[in-house]
Amino acid sequence: MRSRRALLAAVLVAAALAGTTAAGSPTAEASAPPADQLVSPDGTESYVWPYTSRRRATAGRTLALNVVVHGDPDRVRRAFVDRSDANWTTVGANATVDVSPWRPAHGSVRYSYVSPDAAGNGGWVAPAYQLAVGTYFGERTHVRAYPSASGNWTALQAHTEYWDWFRLRHTVTGVEPGAAFVERDLADEPFVERVEHRTHGRLGGGSDGAWIAVEFAAATLLGAAVPLTRRRLSRRDVAIPVAVVGVVLGVRAWGLAAEAVAPGVNPKLYVAVGYPVLAVGPAALVGVLARERPPVLAALLAFAGLAVAAGVDLALVGVDPIPPQIVRHRLALAAALGVVAFGTARADRRLVGVGVVAWLAALAAPLLGVV
Question: Are strands 67-70 and 207-216 parallel, antiparallel or unpaired?
């Protein structure tokens, strides 16, 4: 039975990783957006489709571009990546900039469309670079950058997100907070002349029809741009929720620690190790620890263990508020684990089987796009 569970978990991991790759690849014939959907960030003959897409077509639209930085694209990139490595000479004064919090980031490919004119004679482009503040397996502010090929601007898609081990992917928690973070980061830098909100009128993808415009100051760059019951619980009782909490938080801690030690390693390798532990560990441990325990108590302890673990896990990465669909998903997992514990305590193999199937179904739901 355990070997079957492990096999199922491995299949789920492989499917999820394949799905992540597929989501970032073009699956439809490339087609230009309608001309009336293109926007000129600087009012000249250079345009961008103000959204991102999973593929080279508008049908895959995801999030809206929400920041435009006006300045030479190379200078904009260096302002984010190498900001602390140079002094900026503005008109009449030298200014030392702050240390940049941004680091190169891993993330799925999302396309946008840039064009030298409004007639749609441009093309779909992948982000020239991706940056983040935070951790891949925790919470972060993530930016994808799309420089103009003919204009003097770089469009950004900025959002906040967290790594969800149960869904095996990042979950976006906000588009506006991502743009606000970029705004706060750049607003007080000496090479920035002004920051303002500008309306472009295109709604959708988390956009209210406007984006943040950051204007770089005219400058000469030197070197770079920029208890559940009244019954007294025994140690064996307490071991049930403790084990569940340990697995869930242990996987989160392991991911963060592994990323810190080897940040250059492809995160999917860490996922391939961590997710099977998360998928198999709680049910397997409950299947052992709940034996010969009072059935109702064992079920309550298992349910509470996962509910608490899920809540603490989300709190540790700063998810607030927690999306309702995530709450429902975690409760479904906790309920399934409770059934496993109840069946184990009663030595009812059929009931244990029902709980395991429910557990696997709840795990599979996000991978199939249900959650």
Answer: parallel
What's the pLDDT score for residue 223?
A: 37
Given a contact cutoff of 8 angstroms between Cβ atoms, the answer to whether 69 and 216 are in contact is: yes
CA R_g for the chain: 24
pLDDT band at 150 (very low <50, low <70, confident <90, very high): confident
Task: Based on the fold, state whether residues 120 and 248 are members of the same structural domain.
Answer: no
Last residue in a domain, options 191, 207, 222: 222
Residue 139 lies in a domain: yes
Distances (CA, A) of 249 to 7, 165, 341: 23, 10, 20
Q: How large is the average pLDDT for residues 91-120?
A: 81
Sheet with 87-90: strands ordered across: 93-96, 87-90, 219-222
Percent of the chain with pLDDT over 70: 85
Domain that holds residue 54: 31-222
- For 354, the token pair is 């029902």
Q: What is the DSSP string of 96-133?
A: EPPPP--EE------BEEEESSTTS-SEEE--SEEEEE
pLDDT value of residue 96: 64
